[in-house]
Specification:
Blueprint (H helix, E strand, L loop, with lengths): L5 E6 L6 E5 L2 E6 L7 E6 L8 E9 L2 E8 L9 E7 L6 E4 L4 E4 L12 E5 L4 E11 L2 E5 L4 E11 L2 E6 L5 E4 L3 E11 L5 E18 L5 E16 L5 E15 L5 E13 L5 E5 L9 E3 L3 E4 H4 L33 E5 L5 E5 L2 E6 L7 E7 L7 H4 E8 L2 E8 L9 E7 L6 E4 L4 E4 L15 E6 L4 E5 L2 E12 L4 E5 L2 E12 L4 E6 L2 E13 L2 E6 L2 E13 L3 E3 L3 E10 L5 E15 L5 E13 L5 E3 L7 E3 L3 E2 L3 E3 L24 H36 L20 E2 L4 E2 L6 E3 L23
Length: 758
């Protein structure tokens, strides 16, 4: 039986606009019908109210300030849960002086361009602010103790200034997923605390000031722009600011910390310390600034991407701390699903939920539905844990779905998005586990498909699974893994009218399975960092040109039989190119690093050998027209990769809930089995690709011995969905080819001007 709860309420006779809180567990809640504030608190002992002070109201700087104080001592031993009910949009200033948690729910802070909001944390606790949209004149978030502030408002619009400051070990996180705008922005760290600001659209019209004088870091992530940016780096902490491209940027670097910047017009660097200033460039950011002064190192985006700040889970709205309230898990009820309906046609999806399944309507409905199913461990206020928005971007209707992250969010929610059949053209995924696109969700076959471009992008470490029977005659297809996650395209018949683009950066993987047919006018595959691209089809046809580019340790493999026109290979990293299964009319290779290149070509081969790697021509006779250094090999060398199973579509519930297990045992089992087994299973595809390619790179074939009967390695299933285990392939597959009259050409000579030896 649950222990009794002793409630008490303390009404206020005046409205308050500011609060100073010294209680360990406080929730600020909107009371839409109220005109004054009211405090209602729960405690686990009737003697609690001898130790509390809840009704001290004073006037400070013209504002009515309510001071909340909860005290415990050995004689009372009380534990509190304090609900502060306030009128809608009434609070301007909050000061937290406790080591516990303060949760500020939506529609409690002011929403007016004439008002300013100030949030201060002076102790070791954590402040959570949640809302969908807020407008204000100024915004100040300051952590002066070891505690943190987490601002999680989808749209934050500030007329004048945003000030982010930490003066101790506390962190300040400003997350506005949709919009974050201000006239000026200042971010200051003085010791070990960190500051992070992230938004898909971060715009500062005038000036950004970034100042570091301790070991803490300042990070801007997402996409942004500003007028002028001044960076003062006077400590060992790093400044990651390249997500915000400003017109003019000045950097004063006097310590060991590094600075990452992006600037469109001018960059002025004064380097007085041991750190490095990196100018980050990319196709998206355009050309380097017109004016650069000082010492600068230039890098590309994929090599300097920093991990976005992780959100801390909002504490549950229950009384905690007393051993009397350790309620058994079997008594907790599952929360009902939450459903949203969006009218009209949706063509694009931006998903930031960890377990998401997209399926097509069973009828001709034109609406889109979002169904979030939480399990027993999920917080009760599901509505505040899942947000969505609809907007028109470049003529396409974009649906954004965002889920509040928790330490074990992988097993708390299942999100279903039900869309009209064959309606989706663009998908971006920012989750940490998996996204499944079921058949008939993508716009794949209709009279106007030839005008449709499909693009699937993975921005984080989760996995995307695309499953369908056919994609017929779309104009273009792009699969991009920009983070550490993977994309698995499993569509037996894939026909693209113009271009297929496969891109893997960081440690991401792009795997394309087309067991029946894969055809396109042109195909481009590129990797950066540890990225991997893998293409497998029984019949691949590229009418005109293929481009294969490697710029890191990852590899690209075409384990298929097919043909192409021209194949251009740029090998500028340690990764290998396995392309000998495809016979192209003409092949050009730029080999500028230590990776090997395996090719087959019918008419002409042009090799520009500038590195230590080897170009292997894996066919029985050389092509008629050759130039450059290469070696002949009559075997087909390629890695092997098995198709990963789709994640199961079920509501993940701890089995121990049905068997009356002790809550402590449940928590241990959750950590050990759910986090290890399920996480490994869902991330198995990515791990296989990354570690498998590393294993192959370590065993880079420097010479291929010609064996009378070359063995064929067994095909291993890399991922076992029943156990979540991974079986690594030890060596590349080697297939015998006939006839066996292979010829070896020395690396330092050009075929046609040297004597061949058998």
């Amino acid at each position: 039986m649950d222990a009794p709860i002793f409630p008490a309420c303390f009404p206020q006779h005046t409205n308050v606009t500011a609060v100073e809180i010294d209680c360990d567990r406080v929730f600020v809640v909107e009371d839409a019908s109220a005109t004054t504030a009211q405090i209602c608190a729960d405690a686990d002992t009737p003697f609690a109210w001898q130790a509390g002070s809840f009704d001290a109201v004073g006037v400070v700087d013209g504002e009515n300030v309510l001071r909340l104080t909860c005290r415990t001592n050995d004689d009372v031993g009380a534990h509190y849960l304090v609900n502060l009910f306030v009128p809608s949009r009434s609070l301007r200033r909050i000061t937290f002086v406790s080591s516990g948690t303060l949760v500020v729910y939506p529609r409690t802070l002011v929403d007016s361009m004439a008002a300013s909001i100030s949030i201060t944390n002076t102790d070791a606790g954590t402040i959570f602010i949640q809302d969908q949209a807020l407008h204000m004149h100024d915004l100040a978030l300051e952590a002066t103790g070891t505690g943190s502030i987490q601002w999680d408002v989808a749209s934050t619009v500030v007329m004048d200034a945003i000030g982010l400051r930490t003066t101790s070990a506390g962190n300040v996180t400003l997350l506005s997923r949709q919009v974050l705008t201000a006239a000026t922005l200042s971010a200051t760290t003085t010791t070990s605390g960190n500051i992070a600001a992230t938004s898909a659209n971060l715009t500062v019209a005038s000036h950004v000031a970034t100042s570091l004088s301790g070991s803490g870091t300042i990070t801007y992530t997402g996409h942004g722009a500003c007028g002028n940016h001044s960076i003062t780096q006077m400590g060992p902490g790093n400044a990651y600011t390249s997500a915000m491209q400003c017109a003019n940027t000045s950097v004063l670097a006097t310590s060991t910390g590094d600075v990452y910047v992006a600037s469109s017009h001018a960059l002025d660097v004064t380097q007085l310390g041991a750190g490095t200033v990196f100018l980050v460039s990319s196709k998206e950011k355009g050309q380097a600034p017109l004016q650069v002064s000082g010492t600068v190192s230039t890098v590309v985006d994929e090599l300097t991407t920093t991990t976005p700040p992780l959100l801390v889970a909002i504490p549950p709205h229950v009384l905690q701390g007393s051993p009397h309230h350790a309620t058994s898990s079997r008594h907790r009820h599952r929360n009902p699903p939450v459903e949203y309906t969006i009218q009209g046609s949706i063509t694009s999806l931006l998903i930031d939920c960890d377990r998401t399944f997209v399926r097509a309507q069973d009828n001709d409905m034109t609406t889109t539905k979002i169904i979030a199913t939480p399990d027993a461990k999920a917080p009760a206020n599901v509505e505040s844990m899942l947000l969505h928005s609809v907007e028109v971007v470049d003529g396409d209707t974009l649906l954004t779905v965002w889920c509040q992250h928790t330490p074990y969010v992988e097993n708390l929610y299942v999100v279903d998005i039900v869309v009209p059949a064959q309606s989706i053209q663009y998908v971006a995924f920012r989750g940490r586990q998996h996204l499944v696109l079921y058949p008939h969700t993508l716009h794949t076959s209709s009279p106007r498909s030839t005008n449709v471009s499909l693009a699937i992008t993975n921005e984080d470490r989760g996995n995307i699974f695309i499953q369908d029977s056919a994609v017929d005659a779309v104009h273009s297809l792009a699969l991009r893994a920009n983070g550490a996650g993977s994309i698995q395209w499993n569509v037996p018949r894939t026909v693209v009218a113009d271009t297929i683009e496969l891109r893997a950066g960081d440690a991401g993987s792009v795997i394309l399975f087309a067991t029946s047919q894969l055809s396109t006018e042109a195909l481009t595959a590129s990797t950066h960092g540890h990225g991997v691209v893998f293409v497998q089809s029984t019949n691949l046809t590229v009418a005109t040109s293929m481009h294969t580019d490697i710029a890191g340790t990852g590899g690209i493999a075409y384990t298929t039989h097919g043909t192409c026109g021209d194949h251009i290979i740029n090998q500028m990293g340690r990764g290998h190119v396995y392309a000998s299964a495809i016979t192209c009319a003409k092949t050009s290779v730029l080999a500028a690093s230590s990776g090997d290149v395996f090719v087959a070509t019918a008419n002409a081969l042009d090799v520009n050998q500038m590195g230590s790697g080897t170009v292997f021509v894996q066919q029985s006779t050389p092509p008629p027209h050759v130039s450059g250094a290469f070696q002949m090999d009559n075997r087909l060398t390629m890695p092997n990769l098995a198709l990963a199973q789709l994640p199961p579509h079920d509501d993940v519930v701890d089995d121990s809930l049905e068997h009356g297990a002790d809550p402590l045992d449940i928590d241990v089992a959750w950590r050990q089995h759910a986090m290890v087994g399920l996480a490994l299973a869902m991330l198995g595809l990515f791990l296989v690709c990354r570690h498998g390619w590393r294993r192959w790179n370590q065993q880079r074939p420097r010479w291929h011995q010609l064996l009378p009967n070359a063995p064929t390695s067994p095909t291993n299933d890399l991922y076992d969905p029943r156990t979540g285990t991974i079986n690594y392939v030890e060596t590349p597959l080697v297939h015998a080819m006939n006839p066996r009259n292979a010829t070896t050409i020395p690396r330092d000579t050009t075929y046609g001007s040297s004597v061949m030896t058998s």
